[in-house]
Amino acid sequence: MGRQAADARPRHTLSRVLVRWATGRHWHGRPLSDATFFCDGTQGEPGWWGAGRESRWRLWAGWKRAVVRLAVVAAVVGLWRWRTGTEWVLVLVGGPLAGLGLWRCVVAVRLWRHRGTLERPMASALAPFLGVPPRTVEAALAVEPGFADAAGGEHVAAVALPDHWAATADQKATVEQVIHARLGVDLKYQWRTTAYPMVLNVTRAPTPPARVLFADQRALMEACPPGRVFLGLDANGEPRHWDRSLEDPMVAIHGGSRRGKTSLLLSIAGQDIRRGAERVTAVDPKRVSMLPLAELGPAVRLYNDPRNVEGMWQGIAEFRALVEERYDALADDPTLEFRRALLIIDEVSQCSGMWSAHWHRVRAKGDPAKPPVWDDVAASVWMGAQANANVIVAGQRLDYQILGGMLGSFGVRLLAGYMPQDYARLVGQPPYIRSQKPRGRFLLYAGDELDWVQLVKVDDPDRDFSAFCAWVREGLQGAPDLAATGGTGTGDTLAGTVLIVGLAAAAGHLSMSPEAFKKARQRRPVPGEIEAPDGRPAWSPDVLTAWRTGRGAGVSS
Asked: Among 145, 216, 301, 454, which is 20 to 30 Å from 196 by CA?
C-alpha cells in the first residue's frame, strides 16, 4: 500500500516543472482556481492575502502568469548579457517610473563597485605624485565604467590636477605610467596645463580594424618581402609581418578557443607553400583543424590522428633529420640556400599531455622520463633558423613545462584571450596590458616590441578556406624548382625528371625512419642514385620503390 501510494503521487521532473512554469500553470500541476489559460477565474483556494481570500495571482489567466514570468527572465538575462537594452526591458516590465527606478538602482550598484575596485585604488596610487590626499584625487578622478570596450579615440578618463602641481615632464610620465598600469589598455593623454583648472584627459588609443579579410589583402600578401610572412594590420592600418631574420625567429601562439589560431597557422603555412616551401610538417591532435593543408600539394605532411602518437613522433623526427641534412650540406658548402621548411604543432598543450601518457605506457626501464620527441623538437628549434627551417607551436596554455623547457627559445609570441599570469609568463614587460575581445586580435611580441595586430582572416565564411587554398595552388605553378634554389626534398626536378632528394625525403617516401634507411643504404646501395646540384644523393620514386621491394626482410622499417 505504501508503494502504491508513492506511485500515485505526481512526479515533478525538472522538464515538467519548466514546461508548467513557462505556460503559466502552477509548478506542481494542481489547479488552485477555476482560471483557464485564456480566462481569469472567479473562485479558488485561499492565497497569500489572508484566510478565505483568493489571491489575484491564482485567479489570473495562465497567459498573464506566463508573461510575468518570462518578463522577469528577460530582465535577468538582460542584466547579465545585454546591458545596453536592459533599461528598456525594465521599463516594459515595471512601467516608466518603477522600471527607470530599478534601472537607476542597478546603475548605482555598478558605479559603487566601479569606484571601490578601480577609482579609489587609482586615486591612492596617484596621490603621492600629485601631492594631495587620496580623497581629493578621488573627487577629481573620473573613469568610464566601459573603458575596456571603448573604441579608438573615445574618452575613457579625466583627472582634475591640483593648482600647485608643477607638471614637469617626469611628473607627467609617472602619472601616465600609473594610469596605464591600472587600466591596462592602450591610451593617449591630452594635458592641459597652460590654463586653469589644469586637466588631464585620457582617450583610447586607435585600435586595429575589426576584421582583415583575405580578399582585401591578397596584394599585400603577394608583395610580402622575402623572409617575412604577412600577419595582418596594426592600429595604423600598416601591415605587420613575422620577420624570420630576427635573432630568435621561432613562433609561440597562445590563444583560447575560437580566437583565430587555426586561421593564423593556415595563413602562414599557405603563404610559404605558395612560395615553394619544401616541407610543411603539421601535427594536429584535433584531427580537423589543419585538414585544408592536405589539399595544398606534396610539400605537406599532416599527422592528425591522436591514436597514432608514434606517427606524430616519426614525422617530427623526419623534420629534425631534414634540418641535420641541411647542416651536413652547409658544412661542405656554406653558400647553399634552402627552401623554407615548417614544423607546426597545433594544440601543443594537448599534445604534451597525450605524448607523456603514451610514453608512460610504452617506455622501458632505464628510458628517460621525458618523451624523446622533445629532443627532436628542441633540435629543430635550436638549429632550424640557419637551415631556413622554422618551428611554430600553438596552444591554449604555454609554459616551460608544456614546451619541454624551451619557452625561452621562441622569440616571437602572439597572445589572445590571455590572463594576467599568462601575460607575466609570456611577455613579462610591465605594465600588464588587457586582452582585447575581437576574434583574431592578437598581441604581437617580437624583439621586445608590443603591438596589437588584427590577423588576416583566410576563412570566409567561417571555416571555408576554399578561396585561400585556390590562391595557394595558383602560386604553386610558379614556385621555384631545385635548379633555381639549390633546395632539397620530394618533388624537386632535375632536367625534367621528378626526383626525391636527400636522405630524410627518401626515408619519408619509403615510410622508413631516417636511421633505418641510412643503415639499409649502407648495406645495399640504391641503384640509380645520382647527385643533385647541391651535392646530395637523389633518386627517382620508381627506383626507390623497386629497391625497397627487393631489399630483403633483414632491414627493419
From this structure: 145
> In angstroms, what CA-CA distances link 148 with 52, 145, 164, 183, 186?
57, 8, 32, 8, 10
Q: What is the 3-state secondary structure (H, E, C) of 223-235?
A: CCCCCEEEEEECC
User: In the chain, what is the straight-line distance between the N-terminal and C-terminal CA atoms, in Å?
Assistant: 74
What Rg value do the Cα atoms of the chain yield, rounded? 33
Within this chain, do residues 316 and 388 fall inside the same structural domain, yes or no? yes
Q: Are residues 466 and 403 in the same domain?
A: yes
Q: Backbone phi, then psi, for 332, in 5-degree steps? A: -85, -35
Number of H helices, E strands in the chain: 19, 19
Gap between the Cα atoms of 532 and 539, Å rounded? 9
Task: Count CA atoms closer than 13 A to 42's CA, side-chain side.
Answer: 0
pLDDT computed for residue 427 by the predictor: 92
245 and 286 in one domain? Answer: yes
Contact between 188 and 202 (Cβ < 8 Å): yes
Which cell numbers hold the place of 235? 592600429
Read off the C-alpha cell for 149. 570596450
Strand 251-255 with 412-416, pairing: parallel
pLDDT, one tens digit per residue, over 41-98 is 777 766 554 445 667 777 888 888 888 888 777 666 666 655 556 656 655 655 555 6
Residue 109 CA to residue 279 CA, distance in Å, equals: 58
- Structure-block grid coordinates of residue 354: 597525450
Partners of 413 in the beta sheet? 252, 445
Q: At a CB cut-off of 8 Å and minimum separation 6, what does 209 contact? A: 233, 237, 454
One domain for residues 475 and 506: no
Could you give the CA distance from residue 229 to residue 344 in angstroms, rounded to a whole number? 15
Spatial separation of the C-alpha atoms in residues 351 and 181, rounded to whole Å: 35
DSSP string covering 45-84, please? SB-TTSTT-B-HHHHS-HHHHHHHHHHHHHHHHHHHH-HH
The cell numbers describing 296, all together, are 595544398
3-state class of 438 per DSSP? coil
Query: In the 8-state DSSP scheme, what is residue 367?
Result: S
Q: Nearest 5 degrees, angle CA 496-CA 499-CA 502?
A: 145
| 290 Cβ contact partners less than 8 Å away, ≥ 6 residues apart | 262, 265, 266, 282, 284, 302, 304, 344, 346
Q: What is the pLDDT of residues 358-387, one digit of tens each?
A: 999 999 888 898 999 999 999 999 999 999
Does 2 have pLDDT greater than 70? no
Cα 451 to Cα 445: distance, rounded to the nearest angstrom: 7
Query: Nearest CA to 186 among 424, 441, 394?
Result: 441
Calculated CA dihedral for residues 323, 328, 332, 334, nearest 10 degrees: 30
Q: Which of 157, 182, 204 is the last residue of a domain?
A: 204
pTM of the model: 0.67
CA dist., res. 504 & res. 529, Å (int)? 15
C-alpha–C-alpha distance, residues 529 and 210, integer Å: 55
How many domains does one find in the chain?
Answer: 4
* Domain annotation covers residue 113: no
Q: Domain of residue 143: give its range.
A: 130-204
3-state secondary structure of 456: strand
Do 252 and 243 contact (CB within 8 A), yes or no? no
